[in-house]
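Q: What does the assembly look like in three dimensions?
Context provided by user:
Components: two
Sequences:
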Amino acid sequence: MSLPRAAGRLLARSWQQGLRFYSAAAPSPSARLNLPIDYKTTPLLHHTPSSLANSLELPKNASTKQINLYQAINAALRTAMSASDKVILFGEDVAFGGVFRCSMDLQMEFGSERVFNTPLTEQGIVGFAIGAAAQGLKPVAEIQFADYVFPAFDQIVNEAAKFRYREGTTGANVGGLVIRMPCGGVGHGALYHSQSPEALFAHVPGVRVVIPRSPSQAKGLLLSAILECNDPVIFMEPKILYRAAVEHVPIESYTLPLSKAEVIKPGTDLTIISYGQPLYLCSAAIAAAENARKGLKVELIDLRTIYPWDRQTVLESVRKTGRAIIVHESMINYGVGAEVAATIQEGAFLRLEAPIKRVAGWSTHTGLAYEQFILPDVARIYDAIIQTLDY
Amino acid sequence: MASSLVGRWVARIPRRPHAVLGAVRWNSSISQRPGSDHVRFPGAVNSKFTSEMTFSRPSTMTAMPTYRVMDSDGVIVDTSRGPPDVPDEEVITWYKNMLTVNIMDVIMFEAQRQGRISFYMVSAGEEGIAVGSASALAPEDVIFLQYREAGVFQQRGFTLKQFMSQLFANRNDSGLGRNMPVHYGSSKLGIYTISSPLATQIPQATGAAYALKLQALQNPNNPPRVVACYFGEGAASEGDFHAALNIAATRSCPVIFICRNNGYAISTPTLEQYRGDGIASRGVGYGIDTIRVDGNDIFAVREATKEARRMALENGGRPILIEAMSYRVSHHSTSDDSFAYRARVEVEDWKRRDNPIIRLRKWLENKGLWNDELEQQTRNELRAAILKEFNAAEREKKPPLRSLFTDVYENLTEEAEAQRQELKRHLEKYPDEYNLNDYEDGIKGL
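A: Here is the predicted structure of the complete assembly.
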């Protein structure tokens, strides 16, 4: 495993140089839907402090700073470490700042006892974190890529998730634990730098699975996971957004609720449920569809917490719109969409006017040259909207 | 290694304004000096060059010796050394603790055979490792176990009622009847609840030890504490063992790894488990101070653990490995018939020849502290006490049914609450299909 991962680190550097079009990911010159996401104009990001002030959940009248997603993660980690000396940060290569710069300058600020490198062993990192959390610390463990979390699967599924349950009345638990990992497609990550294993963890009672969509969401949700949540949290960061997504973020400390979805854009005709980076694709597809069909209003929901998830917000929306599409990068088979669709079918059966549609990764691996055909894109989401409306 | 070297290379790319490419030298930087007789490769800085090509061969190395204090007749081997540094009464307590576990094992093994509990695992032959090591730890030290260490619980003050409540999964079990028998736990005694997956506790112990170290640094009023972590030689083949010892060494964690090498992992003999010099030789490879002890010699186990504890706290902390040699006299568990893979005569031989209880009994008798009459009287008392709790525990109700949903998360999720309601609706509709009265408060307990 070590050789590809080393390659991953070098790739990570190249991703940080800015948006690059590799041959496999170059847009078609004639494309009208599958255009590169313009993060500078997307309505999903707070491009001005005033749009941030209008957000219901974020602090009012806050001083803000324009930062990207990795800087938001870095800010959240700094805030958490300042707030509690129980917070420690470790993983592979976190000491020099991390291969994605998320832990930049933190060792200098908080010392090598609280921010440190571990040997290269994912099962060790998570096992170590569980022990530290059991003793009352708030360990934030980093897995360098979500693709490499599988050696730690046993520690997460059999140990972290079941710790509180098996301890019963002794009260011992690992609620302070947070496991961060970059996830998702990035255009050229191929088999082992693209995966989104959230559905695997969503099948595990005892852990919370969180995926933010933007810098302001990332900061609030991560601070919530570290400082407030007493359950182990798997925090997945869409790595394609680390540098791309830039917005105004409150400088002060704030938290966002876990297990609470957010209606990003209200609508009456169709509900799209997604999370992480595909929300930007959904937003673009909705804009195209609403442009093509005058009067169409599509509701867009960010799940934010994959499990335990906010079933009420989703059901309320679909009971209103009567139509639902679920979008995610990870494979369609047994994916998050399956659970959401089944829940909608059970909870809004009489209101459904069309089959629930899932737009997700095909049930294959992410071959390097094929990524644009495997992961959902604007055209596929647009098509799903039209199909669902015309059913 | 390859990977971390790449990481280091990446680290040299300047990213702070004051850093100029090539001008920054990191503390860890090492370069080869011309003419040096020592390796200056960063991965092994103390190695000398040699022009003689020799492979290091484990077969030519002397096996690590096994430390013992008394022989199998209970006689102190080195007569020049003083008596063990514990009062006689304490040694008698150890003896009674070993005997308690032993008698409980016989009763509970039989109880499983009668179908009164679902499962059991005895500690026969390994009582000395558990009791001896636990006696050398401070009460505030933290303990992670595998499952064959009932003596640690007994030595720390776990009550017979607690043992029996867990085994019968009744309403007094701290695990709320959720775990298989023998998966004991007690936060009051500083022992985490046992889980079945092997070796998972080893990196956890390392992390817990790091937490103790950090807490001692942040608050010097905290007493220095160590973590003790127990596992078998089979579990040491798991990746978690490797991960744990390596991190413990690199992060200097005050943790004592105690390996019970009893010769078998279920049916697998050590010859099929490893080809090196046991588990102890690996400790050295991780840069961990290591000792092998005679696990049937409670004095040797205690002394090694006591010294390990002192060393583990030295200079800010570090890990120590103890490999305690013994023989698994019993079947692996109640689900195992060990005569399917080893000769009955071999087991009988070990039972007769040497075990920690008989050895300490001989020492006590040699000192005039014990005799047949005391032995019989003590055995009768212990048996009666165990059976009393056995009968009481067997009659207790199971925990309330709601315990099946609680503690998955800190709070019941909306989904779990809906499932609880659904189960309740179902049980109310089909009450005759279930033994609801076995559970505290019946359906109301849901």
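Follow-up: Confidence is low (pLDDT under 50) at residues 6-19 of chain A.
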